[in-house]
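Protein folding task:
====================
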Amino acid sequence: MLTYLLTRLLAALALLGCAWPAFATPQVFLVQNSGWMEPFYADPQSRFKPLVTELALAVAQPGDALVLAAFNQSLPGAPSPKALLSAKVGEGTRAQVTQALAGLDTARKPGGALADTDLGEAVNAAIAQALGGKDGIVWLVTNNRNSPNNDQATARRNREFYELIHRGGAIRTALAFPLRMPVEGRHYRANGLMVYAFAIGAGGAQTLERLLAGGSIARIITEPPARLKPLDRDTVRLVPRKVEDAPGVAFSMGQGGVLRADVASSAVSPSAKIRWNLENTMYPYTILSASLSARSTLGGENRPVTLASRHVSVLAPGKPQPLASTLQLPVAKLPSKWSMEAVKSAGSAYVLPGTIEVHLADQKLALSQGFRERMAALFPGDPLPDIFVPPAQVQASTAMLPIEVRVHYGMAPLLAVGGGLLALLAVAGAAAYAWMRPRRAYVTVEDELRTMHARTGTDQPIYDKAGNEVARLKTTLFGHQLTDLRQGAQVRLGR
């Protein structure tokens, strides 16, 4: 059971939670201090504590909640986990973490023997109590052994840890970083340790993905992460190599793994033959065999992607295999080069987003031999690598690959529309000038020639010599005319 120390930690977290920003992601660090960890604490050359410090500072962002706790195995009179630090990350966090770890040493049972370990107990406590059921990331730093005495309960605790990772709904993503760190103490020696990262909930998974993509973890841990979970999605990636029989169409990879199809406005081909590299993104697993199928969703069109091969075998991480396909292009959904969308996109590109979904059925996975050998060298005799055995129920996976169809219209539509607008403006300007310009009219009244000036749209009176109105002069765009002519009046247009 948890002691008052963890209870005090939870109370502190509740108080801190009021001040945490809504976007902050709690980070919980569980540091093992059971008997098997003795050389990591006793060896004067050990880089164990500095590693924990630097990793915590690399992944926890300002404003995040940072929880640091030591764990072994809870016993009456010897509680676990034990709170070391709970704080909001800020300028003084490095000193706080360093100080909290400085006094940490291997724990002992009430009788004096070195403490055993229960990994599952520690992770469950972090999820249920430290995070309080909310999203976050739990980091577990361990020598990867569950009991120094190899008692009969060790196998059971290993199975419980396996079930927690693979079948537990709270853990969305589980990664493992096996690290080489040779140390030697009075009782034991070790070659390395394991750092686990468990993303809790959707928010934790998004944060962990962001940390991986941004290189925050890689600055401290240069080893690639081994994926424990998920094994049913984001398992493969398609990287384009060549496009055939589709003039004006080119494929490339953009930021964030987005596949870009650059299409010229003159391209009319309804499909493109694409040669890909199919890559396995599930290090350290090899896809021994699987059935392949794919579909594309572009411009509201959901169509199958024709694959040259419907099967894949022995696809190892870092060793891509060629795959040819025929992808239907949404030519009918692309705007005409004289459309408003084309005019708006002139000089840049009109973007039509979509996805390519790759499905693997009857999926059979196996740990790569190189990873097995690495684990055996770092953790000789350790049964815990069994957690890397893929669950039997994971027999299918799906990879969603975002795609953007980018149509390049050039400047021609904009220039054409601009030229038309300029022509219209010129006509309008000419019409306005013609409308506003005074126009000369000759009128003969009683054999007297008069010169009058009138603007388009005006209507002026005409008087005889006696001062009587005898007619009116109406001016239009098409000329002058006499109206309201008085009977018997001697008035005419012209000389």
